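call fold(seq) -> C-alpha cells
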Amino acid sequence: MSNTLTPFVYWAQTEGQISLKVDLTDVKDLNVNLKETTLQVTACGQGAGGLNNYSFDLNLHLPIDPNESNFKVIDREVHFALKKKNNGWWPRLTSQPQKPSWLKIDFDKWKSEDMDDNEDEKRDILNDYPDMYDKLHKEEFGYRKEDFMKVYLVIYNLCQFVGFIYVLAVMAIRYSRDGPDSMKETYDTVGGPFKFIQLLQFLEVMHPLFGYTKSSVLVSLLQTGGRGFVLFCMIDAESRMQTKPVVFYLFLVWSTVEIVRYPYYITQLLNIEIHFLTWLRYTIWIPLYPLGFICEGIIMLRNIPYFEETKKFTVSLPNSYNFGFHFPSVIRLYLLFLLLPAMYTVMSRMNQQRLKKLRKPEIKKK
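ret:
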C-alpha cells in the first residue's frame, strides 16, 4: 500500500448533534482520538483511493462532549455521533472558514430543529431553512446546486407538455378551418410529432425503476405500452386506419389528459400547490380514460379484417423455423385479456390517488 490518504467525510447536524460519515469499507486498525474541539482518525480500509491507510484531522467549530459522543463501524462507512456541548446550529463544522476539499455536506441526513430524532417523517432543509441551505451549498460548491434528478424531470415534463400542446393546437386550428373534413388528415399532420413524444413516454417506465418517481412500474408499463401498441402497431402500420375519424378523437383524448398531467407534475417538483390544477389532474380522467379505451378498442376491432387481408405481422406455416404467428388472433386476445384488465387497473389506481389527494383534512376537536 502507498502513503496515507484522506477519505471523504460527510457531515450533517441537528440542534444537539453532529453526524459524520467516513466513506470507508472493510475498515481495520481504526484509531480514534476525540477531544472537545478536535477529532483525529486513522484507519486502514477501502476508500476512494482503493485499499490504503487513511487519516484525517478536524478542528471543530465549537466544543463537543466526548463522553456523550460515540462512533461505530458499519457495512460501508464509519459513523460518528458527536454530542454538542451547547445546543445550537453551527454555521460550519471546522474552526477555520476554509473547508478542506475532502469534507462534504450530507444533506440527506440533515434535520431541522423542530424535528425530533425519533420522528419518521423525512424533512427537507430547503423548506425548513432556505437561507442556511443556500449558504451551505455555496460553501460546498461555490453556487446554488440544483438536484440533477429534479432538473431532468422538470425539463422532461416541460418537453412533453409542449409536445402535446403542439398536437392539440394543430388539430384545433385545422378543425376550425376545415371542420370534420380535417379529421381524415389528422395522422398525416401530427402523426410524426405524436410518435416522437410517445417514444419519449417510455422513459416514464424507467423513472420508477431508477427511483426518480414513486409511480408504479406496472401502471406506467400498462399505460405507455398500451398506447405504443395502438399507435405503432394499429395506426402507423395500417394506412387505411390513419384516415378514420376515431384517430382524431383518440389523439384529442390522449393530448387533453397530458396537457393537464405534465403541468401538475412540474408544479409538484417545484413545490407549488395549485388547487384547481390538482383537482383537474385527478378529475379529468373520469370521462377521458373510458373514452380513450373505447377509441382504442374500436381501432383494434376495425383493424382485424385489415390484418386478416394483408397478413402483416403474421408468420404463416410452413416455414424454415416451423413457427406460426397470427397477428389478428393476438389483437383479439389483447382485447379480451389485456385491454379491459388494463383499464380496470389504471382507473382503480387513479381513483385511489384521487381519494387521497382530494380528501378533506380531518379537523380534530379538542
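The longest helix spans residues 327-358.
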